[in-house]
Amino acid sequence: KILILDFGSQYTQLIARRVREIGVYSEIRAFDITEEEIREYAPNGIILAGGPESVTELGSPRAPKCVFELGLPVLGICYGMQTMAEQLGGAVEGSNKREFGYAQVRLDVETALFKDISDHIDHDTGRSLLDVWMSHGDKVAQVPAEFSVTASTPSCPIAAMAWEEKRFFGVQFHPEVTHTLQGQRILEHFVLDICQSERNWTPAQIIEDQIARVREQVGDRHVLLGLSGGVDSSVVAALLHKAIGDQLTCVFVDNGLLRKDEGNQVMETFSQHMGVRVIRSDAEDLFLGKLEGVADPEDKRKIIGNTFIDVFDEQAAKIDGVDFLAQGTIYPDVIESAAAKTGKAHVIKSHHNVGGLPETMKLKLVEPLRELFKDEVRKLGVELGLPYDMVYRHPFPGPGLGVRILGEVKKEYADILREADAIFIEELHNAGWYHKTSQAFAVFLPVKSVGVVGDGRRYEWVIALRAVETIDFMTARWAHLPYELLEKVSNRIINELSGVSRVTYDVSSKPPATIEWE
Ligand code: XMP
C-alpha cells in the first residue's frame, strides 16, 4: 500500500484514485503525520503530493524528516518534488508567473520511473519526449547533490529528478491527470516496480474484507440504514445484506419529491429481488404540507432535511433492539471533514445525512464505504449484483425535486416535473447521451408563457432542461446536446404534458451558475 501526503492540492484525491486503479490501496494523510503513524500504516512507498503554497516562504509545509530516512521509495509531485529538493539540500526558485497546461518534457537521463515510456522522439537529440500537464509557479532551481536531472523543458529545466539508489523521484508535472498521456504508466512504475506493492485492491477483495469487518463489529446485533435509492446507500444496503442478512433493516422515506417511479424501483430491487428488509414510509403529504407557502431555497432545504429526520426517527423507534446506524459515508466526505477540522478545507458540502440520530438513539456508526471513492463504490455495487442503471445513475440531491421547482413546491408542479424529467432522461438514454453527461434533469419554472393551440392562446408553465459535464461537480460545462435530441425532448414534453407550453435549455456554465437552479 501507498501513503500519500497531502499539502492541500486539489489533485491529491486524484493521485489516490489513480494508485487504487492500479490495484493498490492508498490513503491520504496530512503532511504533518508523525513517524509513528507512518510506521503503523506501514506503506511500501510514499507520494508527496502538490499544494498551493510556496516552498520559498517561511512556515510553508514540509514532509516529516523521517520520510527520507525510512528506506522507502518516495515520489514527489509538483510541490512534493519542490519540498523534497529543498529538504535534501537543493534549491527552489519562487515565481509569480504560473506555467499551466500542456508541455513536452525531454527525458535526459535513464530512470526507473520513466522506463520504456515515450510519446515522441526528439529528432535533434534522439531522446524521448513525453506529453505532460504542468501547473506550477515555483520550480526546482538546483537538485540536491546526489540527484540527477532526468527530464527538462525549455521553461522548466528541472522537470524531473531522481536519486536512483535511494529510490527518490520528483516530477514537476502531474502524472495523475489524463492530460499526461503516460501518467498512469509512470505511477505504475513507481507503485508496482519501484515500491513492489501488491496488487490486491479489487472489488471482490474489498467486499470480502468489509464483510468480515462488519460481522466483527456488529456481531449478532441489529443495524438500521436510511435507504435513499442513491448509489452510496444502495451499495451499503447490498453489502450489509450480504454480511448480516436479516440483522439489517432499511427505512426508505418517500418524500413526494423523488423522480418518476423511484420509490417503486427501490422497493423492487431491494425488497422483492434481494430480500432486504425495507420499511417504506410514504410521507408525501407530510412533506408537501410543511413546504406549503415556503419559497426560499435554503428554508426548503432545512424543512426537507428536518422532516426527513422526523420521519426516519419515527420509523426507527418502531424497531426493537437496534444498536447500529449504517451510513453511506465515502472517502471524499472523510477527507473533507478531516480537512474542515484542521481548517485546511476550501469547500465543504453540507450533506443531509441522518444528523442527530446517532446521539439521541445512542447508536454506533457502521460506515463500510469510508475508505472508498465514488468510482470504487460503483464497482462494488456492480460486483454485489445491483442493477447497472442504479449504480451508474446521475447524482440526485437530497432535497430532490424540492430544489428543482423554483419557489413554492406544489404537488401539481412536482407531478408535471416528474413526467418532464422522465421524458428527458429517457431520450438521453435513447440517444446514447445519458452516460456522456454527468448530471441531467428538468426544472419547473412557475411562470406562465404563451402557447397557441388550435386557434386559441394558452398560458402554461415553462420547463427548463439542464445537462452538464463535470468531473468533480465543482466546475461544470453545459453539455452540447445535439439539436435533434433537444427538439425531440421539447416536442414530447409540450405534446404529452398538458400544462407546459414552453421548453428551454440551460446554457450556463459553473461557475458562476450552479448545477441546480436553487
Ligand atoms: P450545485 O448546484 O451546487 O450542485 O452546483 C453541485 C452538486 O451538488 C448537488 N446538490 C445537492 N445535493 N443536497 C444534496 O444532497 C443539496 O441541497 C444539494 N444542492 C446541490 C447537485 O445536484 C450537484 O450534483
Describe the 3D structure:
- Catalyzes the synthesis of GMP from XMP.
- About 2% of the residues have low confidence.
- It is built from 15 helices and 21 strands.
- It has 518 residues and is α/β, with parallel strands linked by helices.
- The protein folds into 3 domains: 193 residues, Class I glutamine amidotransferase (GATase) domain (Rossmann fold, 3-Layer(aba) Sandwich), CATH 3.40.50; 162 residues, Rossmann fold; 95 residues, GMP Synthetase, Chain A, domain 3, CATH 3.30.300.10.
- 34% of the residues lie in helices and 24% in strands.
- The protein binds xanthosine-5'-monophosphate.
- Xanthosine-5'-monophosphate binds next to loops.
- The site of xanthosine-5'-monophosphate has 12 residues, from loops.
Helix content: 25-40%
Compute the number of structural domains: 3
Radius of gyration: 26 Å
Q: Judging from the principal axes of the Cα atoms, what is the shape?
A: globular
| Share of residues in strands | 15-25%
The low-confidence runs, each spanning 5 or more residues with pLDDT under 50, are: 344-355
In total, the number of strands is 21
CATH-scheme architecture of the largest domain: 3-Layer(aba) Sandwich
Q: Which molecules are bound in this entry?
A: xanthosine-5'-monophosphate
Task: Give the strand order, joined by hyphens, for the main sheet.
Answer: 2-1-3-4-12-11-10-6-8-7
> Quick check: average pLDDT?
93
> What is the H level of CATH, i.e. the homologous superfamily of the largest domain?
Class I glutamine amidotransferase (GATase) domain
* Terminal Cα span: 42 Å
Name of the CATH first level of the largest domain: Alpha Beta
Q: What is the number of helical segments per DSSP (H or I, 4+ residues)? A: 15
CATH topology of the largest domain: the name is: Rossmann fold
**Helix and strand composition category:** alpha/beta
Biggest sheet record: 10 strands, mixed
